[in-house]
Amino acid sequence: MKPVRSVSFSTLVKSLEGFLPREEQLSYFLKESPPGDSGRTQKSRLIQQVSMASAAHGPGRGEIFCPFDSKNAIPETFIEQLRHMTQSGKILPKSQKGRLRIVFMNSIFHFPERESCWRLMEMLAPHGIDCCICDEKSKNLVRQINPDLLFFFWQPDRNLLPDVPSAVMVTHPVRSAWARQSDVAFYVTDDEAAIRKLTAQLKEKTRVVPTTLSTKKTEFYGGPKRRLFYASLNWDQRRGVGYVPLYRLLDETGYFDAYGPESCWEGKVKNSYRGLLANGCDELLKTAQKAGIVLVLHAPLHFNSGTPTARIFEAAAASAVIISDKHPFVQKHFGDSVLYVDQNADPTEMFRQIDGHMRWILANPKKAVELARRSHSIATEKFPLEREAEKIEACIRKVVAERAS
Q: Whole-number mean pLDDT of the chain?
């Protein structure tokens, strides 16, 4: 046995049946957590990987990632089995006439983007596109798969497969530079000025297509709206530092539930942290629906380009009452179906506004349900992922055909 870099698959639990004892499978996932992570985050990550492995995404679709260097010795036969799974089409089906094969490239730590990848995988399959997800350390496996297109949710690497066309998802202006390295850029905005600016920067070398990171259609749920759900990586200065006093005030209310990597919430709340939600099994939507109320806060970069966070669509799909900052996209499309707070106010005033909305919701349960019904209807009618998937599929096929000609 030779020590090797850790290589793991979201389909690992099933694929290792009869190869490793169940206890060793779970231990393998747990030991892969990075140094310094607490036991609680390790458990969240373990649950996440196992839940993704057991989630029903259909045959031939899964996730590949190499998150950390492992000090554990992995049998060479194990690595050979992983290679065989890739080459035999068990991770991504072999080429079939009329069907395309796509690899989504994403960072292991970008949980919201990974969730979007999973949703697109499900939506694109009926359109003849088979997908899997790889992280930036899985380049050798990507080369073995040899897909028809690379779809980057992370910084593109044109040297990975230079002859393969690529697409990139641009979720805020900083990532617009990534579009220069791709054949098509899906820009998450409806801000015409931002779209024109990016198109001019690219000088028509890259096709720019407006889109939304929405969710598939859901049935409305009129259950209780009692708790405030908030999921965030707190990656920007405003939400990661500026809103800490707000989080601490919410932490004392008893109705606040905060989700995300534990490292992103360390020192911000004492009572309200609930863990890291799993990707690929709609756990975020289910948890938000159970809470009934969702807080949506944007980074300054989101405001600069009119780019909404995916949370607004997830909140509506979860049939939740939405409390949001005054993002122009949210105000334009969701109007008075959302309760607003002023993002430019100081944290104490923002808390006062949020707490006032919570008191109104709890005191007016029937009116709150009707508010949630309206935002759910808007998201279902205007932004279903089914429609976005058709647009994305058409663009992808056109790009692949142009490269082939």
A: 78
